[in-house]
Design a protein that fits this description.
The protein has 361 residues and is mainly alpha-helical. The protein contains 14 helices and 6 strands. The longest helix has 31 residues. The radius of gyration is 21 Å and the shape is globular.
């Protein structure tokens, strides 16, 4: 066999072994966290995370409000059909809620005069939208089933349904039974939310604090396959990466030039910080593995995206997730884990089912 054919064969075998190894690792981690049960089909999902324990179930409202999940799906589907960009926005709100105090809808609370600012007022949350749609869903549910369906569950279902809309089927199961938190602090959001400028060590530490491992970190980063970002968020990578007017050398040069043009960088090296760019150069509206294809080409938009390639394990997992089937399957598993962070359930101190998602009862 000619040497070039031998090389191709060796690369193919190596890639196949790597693919199988990561799949086995992913499945093993999933099994270990579900105590031997399949999260996607088990109707009773009990989570033990060391510092908390929450109990969620599939179809939690099937007796108390049987139409609840259908109502959420109908309203969200209608909105996303009219405006596909909402899928990324709902997903972002859900992420930002879960990483601060857990998935308790504390992000939905408005600030109260004379008290500390709520999470909504934190700088990373100022660009979030979709709260009015959550209000609309809550209003309908309160008329059908008063004081029954939590805002935390509405938000969790809405994020899943928004992302899944393009596929015409749910991409992952949502376990319900959360109640809503009563505390919301902007200072905690500023402290706890993952930063677009974070390195791998910081990201891994932050995710580990919520019992999310490196597979979850990489999979959940894949949410950047949809949505947009303002140039001000990543502008330093383009114009002043080390404080010397330089561009981040880890960024593909042609992509850097493209971003500079989109951000209206002029000859004086000033950029329009409010200009908007798609986070995935393969398309900002389609939820697929395009993010990982671009990432492996050094076209990750944020420093935190590029950081995944600085860790061998994360980089290998990212390479496997270039396959859409592998990515979507693990993304669903990781979303189930993320949406279970520090959940409050009936009977837990500090929890309630709000009548209005913007204010405590």
């Amino acid at each position: 066999m000619p040497k070039n054919q031998q090389f191709v064969a060796i690369r193919f075998i190596f890639s196949l072994v790597l693919f199988l190894a990561v799949l086995l690792y992913v499945d093993g981690k999933s099994d270990s966290h579900s105590n031997g049960h399949n999260n996607d089909h088990n109707n009773d999902h009990t989570l033990r995370r060391g510092r908390w324990e929450g109990k969620l179930k599939m179809k939690f409202y099937h007796k108390t409000c049987p139409e609840a999940e259908d109502i959420v799906n109908e309203i969200v589907s209608e909105k996303v059909k009219a405006n596909p960009s909402l899928a990324a926005k709902f997903l972002r709100v859900h992420y930002h809620d879960c990483f601060v105090r857990g998935c308790d809808a504390s992000l939905l609370l408005d600030s109260v005069a004379g008290k500390a600012a709520s999470e909504k007022e934190a700088r990373p949350n100022l660009s979030l939208v979709g709260f009015d749609i959550i209000d609309e869903i809550k209003s309908v549910l309160e008329k059908r089933c008063p004081k029954t369906v939590s805002c935390a569950d509405i938000l969790t279902l809405a994020a899943r349904d928004a992302v899944s809309y393009q596929y015409g089927r749910p991409l992952w199961n949502v376990f319900t039974g959360r109640v809503d938190g009563r505390v919301s602090l902007a200072t905690e959001a500023t402290r706890d939310l993952p930063s677009a400028g974070a390195n791998f060590t910081a990201l891994q530490k932050l995710f580990a604090e919520s019992d999310l491992d490196v597979v979850d970190l990489v999979a959940l980063s894949g949410a950047h396959t949809i949505g947009t970002a303002r140039c001000g968020v990543f502008g330093r990578r383009l114009l002043n990466f080390t404080g010397k007017g330089d561009t981040d050398p880890s960024l593909d040069s042609s992509y850097a030039s493209f971003l500079k043009s989109k951000c209206s960088v002029d000859k004086s090296q000033r950029l329009n910080s409010s200009a908007v760019v798609g986070m995935d150069p393969t398309g900002a509206l389609s939820f697929d593995s395009g993010y990982f294809v671009s990432l492996l080409q050094h076209k990750g938009l944020f420093t935190s995206d590029a950081a995944l390639l600085t860790d061998p394990s994360a980089a290998h997992i990212a390479s496997v997730f270039q396959n859409s089937g592998s990515f979507l399957a693990q993304f669903g598993r990781s979303m189930i884990k993320m949406s279970s962070i520090k959940v409050l359930t009936l009977g837990d101190e500090g929890g309630e089912i709000r009548r209005n998602c913007r204010v405590v009862n």
